[in-house]
Amino acid sequence: MNTFLPHPSWTRRQALGFIVGMSGSFVLKGCTNPNNSSPSTASNLTSIRLGITPWIGLTPLYIAKESGLFQEVELDLQIRSFSSVQESIPSFVVGQNQGIVPVISEAVALAAQGADYRIVLVQDTSVGADAVLARNSIASIKDFKGKKIAVQKGAVSHFFLLQVLAEAGLSEKDVILIDAEPAIAAAAYEAGSVEITCSYSPYVNQANANQKDGRIIYDSSKMPSAIADVYAFRTEFIESSQQTVKAFVSCILKGLDFLNTNPNDGLVLAAKHFDLEPEVLKTQLRGIQLPNVKTNREMLANPQSDLYLLKPMQAIAEFLKSQNQIETIPDLSNLIDPQFVIALDVASIVDRA
User: Mean of the pLDDT values across residues 182-192?
Assistant: First the structure.
């Protein structure tokens, strides 16, 4: 088996069985512009601790950090990188980290566990980066019945797959799931060990390119509301540090504006954090959308909009309950906090549709 080994930078959003005890972490010391930082001024900055699982949707954050935007607004952003969401949850729940970056299915599950937090910004939505691969002999999703599927159980790909199956009138009971991490799941398909896999970029890209007997049979562009990553902060931190959260949100969106207006420079700044060449990162970013100020306002502050985030979150909560993935449907009505995207001075951020 020609196993494609994952680079640690590419570990993404993972398991939901999370509140099981404290896990270790390490600080990822992001490189800032040397002209904007010095040991003498760092102690005067307001500290903010964010737990992440590295993923290309973080590109605007890394651009903002590399270019010194956080220091310009007197924020000392401490990025704490975890290998999975499962590892990052305990330190968030007890307040060691004030912020976290979950997928909305993970956010729903976290709320179902009683965590007190609010979503303040949408990081990205998946429009093709998550995909199901199948052999050419499998004509449709309905033909998955009785087949083995490699996927990481309890992770974002698992819940995406459940939704894909349900759309075709199938359930998890109709297939045989082979539990494997995203890179290994894709590699098993690439090597011919399984006929179907569900994973995400860049693993599905490589597997699809190298396994000629097969294709992408379904991807997240067909279900654009199913997978979105968000920035969330503990409620008590938001209430005590509103200006800090507002500055953080502003920096992320300015990082996105930098990417839009200076794409080559922006890709260079961010690519090093993923151990990728800038052109490769550019290609991978085509599988996601990075919402700007206007879109974030639609998603977080406009209940009448088709983009309003609470709608897919409620649907996901009901779906997870039907799949016995959560015990009860949590009250999501106060989970979204749009005040920071509403209050932004858009004159300082280029708003691009």
Answer: 95
Domain 130-222: CATH superfamily is: Periplasmic binding protein-like II (3.40.190.10)
In DSSP terms, which residues pair with 132 in a beta bridge? 198, 218
pTM: 0.80
- Say if residue 202 is preceded by a cis peptide, omega within 30 of 0: yes
According to CATH, what is the number of the domain 8-125+226-348?
Answer: 3.40.190.10
pLDDT at 34 over 90: no
Query: Do 215 and 190 contact (CB within 8 A), yes or no?
Result: no
CA–CA gap between residue 190 and residue 210 (Å, rounded):
6
CA distance 290 to 256: 8
Every domain range in the chain assigned CATH 3.40.190.10 = 8-125+226-348, 130-222
User: Of 38-52, 208-222, 262-276, 307-321, where does mean pLDDT reach its minimum?
Assistant: 38-52
- The arithmetic mean of pLDDT across residues 228-236, rounded, is 97
